[in-house]
UniProtKB/TrEMBL annotation:
Family matches, as InterPro entries: ATP_synth_OSCP/delta_N_sf, ATPase_OSCP/dsu
Principal place of residence: membrane
Protein's recorded name: ATP synthase subunit delta
Places the protein is found: Cell membrane; Membrane
Gene Ontology molecular-function annotations: proton-transporting ATP synthase activity, rotational mechanism
Function comment: This protein is part of the stalk that links CF(0) to CF(1). It either transmits conformational changes from CF(0) to CF(1) or is implicated in proton conduction.
Cited SUPFAM superfamilies: N-terminal domain of the delta subunit of the F1F0-ATP synthase
UniProt record similarity statement: Belongs to the ATPase delta chain family.
Organism: Actinomadura meyerae
Any one GO CC term of the record: plasma membrane
Upper taxonomic lineage: Bacteria, Bacillati, Actinomycetota, Actinomycetes, Streptosporangiales
Entry coiled-coil feature ranges: none
Length: 273
């Protein structure tokens, strides 16, 4: 879901601004579901995706096409938002689809935020990604071709329904049934970043051989927030191979203060010599 084109990035920024204008008055559960339904449609119908992203086609014409196709099938809030989005310019058709997915995930994050559950949503997406990574059989069942979609849906519901926030269940289900070319772990990481962006905060993956106390977590988050100028959400991963200290990953930056990291650095220096 990486949008690389400069034109598309500018359009995505406008689309997100329009979403924010809709959120206060929208039924957020319906909005997220409707935006995902639109995503499924434009992913499935390649001709439609090309038609509504064609830069040579008049924007009003594209909006009218969307109105004809979707009126009465999605909420007015979702319909108005999609009609606005298709009038923006996109570098390629797939980036329009990626933008709609971004809006759908953001709507689910806003839903969790409105319910006071956005921290839970972040944590649950992270924890589920680690469960999937560690359970080979579960990962195979959820991502492989062996189970039909209805069985995968039943498995997701058995694992998560009533145990996680509604937004978490929606987003995990979406990734399991429609991965859009990503690994399940990769999709969960992407969605987690979008949830963090909803709060305008960074996500730090902290690897440590022993768990951190609440006081240690609070101090570490405060230090990182001061260093990066943003609130920082900590995802803690226990890693006995780290031996001691912490390894912190924020975006593309890795701060490695573990003994193992320092030993690796020594080995590299010796090898270079």
């Amino acid at each position: 879901m990486t949008i690389t084109g400069a034109v598309s990035r500018a359009s995505l920024a406008q689309a997100r601004t329009r979403l924010e204008a809709v959120i206060p008055s929208a039924d957020l559960a319906a909005l997220g579901a409707d935006l995902f339904a639109v995503l499924h449609l434009i992913d499935r119908e390649h001709g439609l995706r090309r038609a509504v992203s064609d830069p040579a086609r008049d924007g009003a014409d594209k909006a009218q096409l969307v109105q004809i196709l979707l009126e009465g099938k999605v909420s007015p809030a979702a319909l108005g938002l999609v009609a606005d989005v298709v009038q923006l310019r996109w570098s390629k058709p797939s980036e329009l689809a990626d933008a709609v997915e971004t809006l759908a995930v953001t709507a689910e994050a806003a839903r969790a935020e409105a319910d006071g559950q956005i921290d839970d949503l972040e944590d649950e997406l992270f924890r589920f990604s680690r469960v999937v990574e560690g359970e080979v059989e579960l990962r195979s069942a959820l991502t492989g071709p062996g189970l039909p979609d209805d069985r995968k849906l039943g498995l997701v519901n058995a694992l998560l329904e009533g145990k996680v926030t509604p937004a978490t269940l929606t987003l995990v289900t979406e990734l399991v049934l429609r991965p859009r070319g990503r690994s399940l772990e990769g999709g969960l990481a992407e969605f987690g970043k979008l949830v963090a962006q909803r709060r305008q905060r960074l996500v730090a993956l902290v690897r440590t051989p022993t768990d951190l106390s609440a006081r240690q977590r609070s101090r570490l988050a405060a230090v990182l927030a001061a260093a990066y100028g943003h609130e920082v959400h900590l995802n803690i991963e226990l890693d006995p191979s780290a031996i001691g200290g912490l390894s912190i990953e924020i975006g593309d930056e890795i701060i490695d203060g573990t003994i193992a990291g320092r030993l690796d650095d020594v080995r590299r220096r010796l090898g270079a010599g």
